[in-house]
């Protein structure tokens, strides 16, 4: 058996296979629930209810989706140009550190929010710039360098929260001081936790889509991603395109950390991210690297996490089913992407 490329996949093939992947994921989820001793249909219903069954649940899903949109966009932008950014988690924390540094008294007044957002993006961009320069100058594999930066940043944040940035009024807990009121993103709905970081994430997705489809940079990013040798032969500044891609990707990931601190938490702690940077890879792949699809994918993944928490409490089923569900969804979606572009031929 071998794989044969499909020159022009039909629309039915492009849409049908991803839908089939989602349906297969649902079947697997039902099987996992049955193995855990629960009614599969009841578990799936409780996940849906827990995610969107009430106003509070729906808004919590949007809250959880906000950082996933940013990290999903960061990964989608980089992967589109075949720049394997695995360091969105580190860039997220870089943005959160800047949010605390500028939001706890270093900068005041009405400009603190936009200034801290821009500064956070610059910090995330600079963090990814180092591995990319190593890639284009020395040929160092960015998968390794960006992944290692995640661990370095985690240790650095731990050092900051146990030392220079530790809140003296925090009763010994490793967390930073709280942000000033003017450094906090306002709530979209008073009394509820959904903040304007979600609106900013939607604007970011639309902006990235416009960049990729309406600008020269977007065309160059796609060309480099499809065939870097052909792009270089055509005279495109491949190294410059990769650097610009890195700046955009790192900045988007940093906005995830900035929005979590400025919009939701109000301070920095070691548990700020339960793996948003890594989950962003799943979000981007489920969206087929499409910026607008990232929004839908992030909502889907956030709904699974939020719904699974509610389902676990109601049905007594372990929450790790959500992790298995996402892993299964990613595997099926990768297979669907493969079969969209290739057909299996015997012989």
Can you count the helices? 13
Please state the structural category: mainly alpha
Radius of gyration (Å): 21 Å
Q: In which order are the strands of the major sheet placed? A: 1-2
Overall form:
globular
Q: Mean of residue pLDDT? A: 89
The biggest beta sheet is recorded as: 2 strands, antiparallel
What percent strand? under 5%
Roughly how many Å apart are the termini?
5 Å
Q: Count all strands and give the number.
A: 2
Helix content: over 70%
Would you list the SSEs in sequence order as H and E?
Answer: EHHHHHHHHHHHHHE
Write the layout of secondary structure elements.
Blueprint: E1 2-5, H1 11-35, H2 40-52, H3 55-80, H4 88-106, H5 112-138, H6 142-162, H7 197-214, H8 216-226, H9 228-233, H10 238-265, H11 276-286, H12 291-315, H13 320-341, E2 342-345
Helix pairs in contact: 1-2, 1-13, 2-3, 2-12, 3-7, 3-10, 3-11, 3-12, 4-5, 4-6, 4-10, 4-11, 5-6, 5-10, 7-8, 7-12, 8-10, 11-12, 12-13
């Amino acid at each position: 058996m071998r794989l044969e490329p499909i020159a022009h996949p039909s629309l039915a093939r492009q849409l049908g296979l991803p839908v089939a992947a989602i349906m297969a994921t649902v079947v697997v989820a039902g099987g996992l629930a049955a193995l855990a001793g629960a009614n599969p249909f009841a578990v799936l219903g409780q996940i849906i209810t827990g995610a969107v069954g009430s106003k509070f649940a729906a808004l919590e899903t949007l809250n959880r989706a906000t950082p996933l949109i940013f990290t999903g966009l960061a990964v989608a932008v980089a992967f589109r140009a075949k720049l394997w950014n695995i360091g969105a988690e580190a860039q997220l924390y870089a943005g959160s550190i800047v949010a605390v540094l500028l939001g706890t008294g270093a900068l005041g007044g009405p400009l603190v929010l936009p200034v801290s957002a821009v500064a956070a993006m610059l910090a995330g961009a600079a963090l990814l710039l180092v591995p990319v320069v190593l890639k284009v100058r020395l040929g160092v594999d960015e998968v390794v360098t960006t992944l290692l930066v995640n661990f370095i940043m985690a240790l650095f944040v731990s050092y900051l929260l146990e030392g220079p940035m530790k809140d003296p009024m925090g009763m010994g807990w490793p967390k930073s001081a709280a942000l000033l009121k003017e450094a906090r993103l306002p709530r979209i709905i008073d009394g509820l936790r959904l903040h304007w970081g979600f609106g900013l994430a939607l604007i970011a997705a639309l902006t990235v889509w416009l960049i990729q489809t309406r600008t020269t940079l977007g065309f160059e990013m796609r060309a480099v991603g499809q065939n870097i040798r052909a792009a270089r032969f055509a005279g495109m500044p491949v190294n410059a395109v990769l650097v610009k891609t890195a700046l955009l990707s790192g900045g988007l990931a940093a906005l995830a950390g900035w929005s979590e601190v400025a919009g939701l938490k109000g301070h920095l702690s070691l548990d700020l991210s339960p793996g948003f940077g890594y989950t962003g890879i799943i979000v981007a792949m489920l969206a087929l690297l499409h910026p607008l699809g990232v929004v839908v994918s992030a909502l889907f993944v956030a709904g699974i996490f939020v719904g699974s928490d509610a389902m676990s409490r109601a049905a007594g089923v372990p929450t790790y089913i959500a992790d298995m569900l996402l892993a299964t969804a990613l595997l099926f979606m990768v297979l669907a992407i493969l079969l969209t572009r290739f057909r299996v031929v015997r012989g």
